[in-house]
Amino acid sequence: xxxxxxxxxxSTTRMVAACxxxxxxxxxxxxxxxxxxxxxxxxxxVGYVVDVQLxxxxxxxxxxxxxxxRIADVNRDALQRPVVVLRFAVDPIANVDLEAGSxxxxxxxxxxxxxxxxxxxxxxDAARVRLVAYLPDTVEGHAxxxxxxxxxxxxxxxxxxxxxxxxxxxxxSIEGAYRDVVSRRATxxxxxxxxxxxxxxxxxxxxxxxxxxxxxxxxxAAKRREAGEVLREETIWAGGGLAQFSGQQLRNRRWIxxxxxxxxxxxxxLDLSGALxxxxxxxxxxxxxxxxxxxxxxxxxxxxxxxxxxxxxxKQQVNLLVVELSQTTSNFSNASRLASYIAGLNAEQxxxxxxxxxxxxxxxxxxxVACDEAVLLSTASLGPMTDAIGANGLGxxxxxxxxxxxxxxxxxxxxxxxxxxxxxxxxSALIDPSVIVNEYVHQDSGKRAIFAEWQIAKQANAQQWLxxxxxxxxxxxxxxxxxxxxxxxxxxxxxxxxxSRLGVEEMPPELKTPWLDATIQRVLAQGWLPRLxxxxxxxxxxxxxxxxxxxAGGLLxxxxxxxxxxxxxxxxxxxxxxxxxxxxxxIALGIELFVLPGFGLFGIGGLVMLLxxxxxxxxxxxxxxxxxxxxxxxxxxxxxxxxxxGGMIGLLFMHRQLENSPLLRWVTLxxxxxxxxxxxxxxxxxxxREHLLGQEGITTTRLNPxxxxxxxRDIVAVVGTGKMIGEGVPVRVVEVRGNLILVEDCADx
Length: 749
Prior knowledge:
749 residues; alpha/beta; 2-enoyl-CoA Hydratase, Chain A, domain 1; 4 domains; 5-stranded parallel sheet; 25 helices; disordered N terminus
C-alpha cells in the first residue's frame, strides 16, 4: 500500500537520524579537512544519465548495468550518493520510417532482460547510487518492470506507463516477479501494478473511517465495505483492459515525484550541481587532442582530418577528441561525411566533444552534434544556410535531380540521427532553410512529437497529427530549443566549463597533421596551380595534334591533365562523369590521329568532350540551377576557352621558335636535309613497268576492271581490257602506259 503521509514521515525520520549521527562524530576528525571546508555548505550532488534503449532486447540490459556499476565505482568516496537518471528512451517517432507505422512505443521488450535489469536495480550493488527513472515517452510491455525497480519516477505529462502484460499472457512466474520488485521499492501501489498485468482487475481509492486512505483491489474493497470502514470510494480503474496512466495522472495521485515536459529541467528538479553527465564523461586517463575547424571545409581537408584522427588513435592512443568550431562553412557532402565519421567512433575508445564557439550556419552545424557531447557557448547558435541542399530542398519531389539529392540527404540524415540519437527534424532544419519543424499532438493518444513538414506529408495517418506550435525553420535555432530536444547537450559560457566536466583542466594540444598531408594541403591551397597545369596540358596537346605520332607532347599533356584532375578530385569536384568524358575524349582523339587520319567528327567530338570534362571538374555541380552557378559556369568556360585558344595562337606564332628551341627540339620533327629530299623524290617518282610487257601472270584479285596480278614475285595493280576477269585466272600484259598496266585473259587470246 502506498501512502504519501507515511512517505513524508519516513523521510523526516531519516533526516533527523542523519543529523544526530553527524553530531556524534568525533571532533578530532575535523582537522583532517581543510579549514575553509570544515564549515562549507552541503557537498555537491552530481548526476548522470544512462539511456535504457527500448525495447529491451539482446544485451541492452548488460550495457545499462555496466554503466551504473562504473558510475558507482568512480564515486565510491563521494559524501552523497550520485544520482543516476535512467532515461527510458524509445526511438523518437520522428526518426523512424513513418510509412511503416511502427516504432511508436516500447513494446517487444523481453521479459528475461527486463527482470535481469530490475533485479540488478534493486540489488545492494546498485544501492550505491540513487536511481531515478525518467519517462520522456510512453513505456509499456515488460519495460515497466525496471521502471518500477527505481527509487523515484519522473515523467513527461503526456507519457504513459502501463499495459505491462501486453506482449504475452500473464503467468505465475511473471506475476511473482512484479510482486517481488514492488515489495522492494513500493514505487506504485500493488493493486495498480496488478491492473497493469491483469485486464480484469479493478482498483479503488477508499477513504476510511479512521481518516486514512487506501488503494485497494476488488477483493480488499469488498472486505472493507462489509466491515463498515469505508466512508467514500473512487474508482481508479474499472477493468476491461490493461491499466495505463499518463504522467499527469500519476502525479495527480502522487505516485511519482513530478512531471517534466522540458528535459533541460532535470538537473534543477533533482537539485543537482551542473548538467547531467554520461558514463563516458567519467574521469579517465585522458589523452586528448583538439581539432580546430574554421573557414571552408574542402574535400581534401576532410580526408586529411580523417587520416589524422585515425593515425592519432592508432599510434598515439588518443581517447578524447575535442572538436572546436568557429565560422566554419562546408557543403553537405563534406560536412555529412566528417559528421558520420565522428559519430561512428566508438565512444568507449574515443570520446568526442564538440564545442561551438561562434555561430554556425548550414551543413557545418552537423559536425558538432555528431559528437558524443555537443556544447554551445552562450554567444553561439546553429542554423540553416540558403541553398544548402538545392533549389527545392529536402522536400523536393518535382525536379528529378532535386528529388534525388533530397532523398539522398534524407537517408544520410536518418542514419546520422539514429547513430547520434539526435532529433531528425532539427537536423534537417539545420541544412535546409525551407524545412519547417512543428510540435504536433496526436488526436487519439495525445502524444506530442516534433516533425518536419516533409515527414508529416509521408505519414499514412497524417490527419491524426495536429500542428500546435512552430519549433524551428528558416532561421537560427534558439538555444533553449536545441537543448530541450537534445540537439545539443549543454550551453556553457566558456569552453573550459565543458572540459572541466571531463576532468580536463586545460585546452588539449592541436591535432598534428602528417607532414605529407600538410604538404599536399599547402599545394592544393594554391588556386593558380590547376589552371597552370591545364594551360600546359592544352599547349602540349596542340603540339601533339600538330605533329601526329610524337609521343612526348601527348605524354606531357597526359601528365598535366592527370595533375589537374587529381587536384580537383581532392577538392571534391571530380566524379565518374568527368572521368568518363575525359577518357572518352582521349579515345576519340586517338581514333582521329591513328585510325582515321584527318580532322573530322572524332577530332571535334574528342576536343568537345575534353573541354566539357575540364569545365565540370572545375565546379561542384553538373547542371546549374541558380544564378550563382550560372555565373560560375560562364567563368569556367571563359578561362578554359582562353587557355585552349592561347595554346593554339601560341603555336602559330612560336612554331619556328619551337623547332629551334633546345628545350623543346626533342618534341618536334627536324626538317629534312637535301640528300634526304633527293632520296624521297626518287622514291616517290613514277615506277617504270615496261619490262612486264608480254609477260604472263595470274590474278590475285578479281579484275572489275582493275585489280591485282602476280608476275614472278611482284604483285602489281593491273587493269583488264575486256570483260571482268576472276581471281586465279592466267593473264598477259598487252600494254604498259607509265604506271598503268593493261592485261588480257590468256584464254581469249
